[in-house]
Design a protein that fits this description.
By secondary structure, the protein is an all-alpha fold. The protein starts with 7 loop residues before the first helix and ends with a helix. It has 4 helices and no strands. About 70% of the residues lie in helices and about 0% in strands. It is flat and about 70 Å long.
Length: about 90
């Protein structure tokens, strides 16, 4: 016999309650952290940073990689990939 505390129905009720609490907490955090009258658009917040970065990049010269550098970089990436999944 299945105990009432261990049934699927009880599990799903608890899971739904947890999801609801997390959703409400996240929504509340969003309301509290954003000042009144502000938008959640990050473009206004970081516009000056983007402009500074674009100015710096526009002053730099583009240097193409040689075939040897490309092969070396690809080998490094593949070695690291295989180390992570080995």
């Amino acid at each position: 016999m299945i105990k009432e505390g261990n049934s699927r129905r009880t599990f799903f009720k608890k899971a739904a309650a947890v999801v609801g609490v997390v959703a409400v907490a996240d929504y509340t955090k969003t309301l509290i952290s954003s000042p009144p009258g502000s938008t959640n658009d990050g473009s206004e917040k970081y516009a000056s940073d983007v402009n500074i970065q674009e100015r710096i990049l526009s002053q730099k010269q583009l240097v193409l990689m040689t075939d040897d550098e490309k092969k070396q970089r690809l080998d490094e990436l593949l070695d690291n990939y295989h180390k992570d999944f080995a």
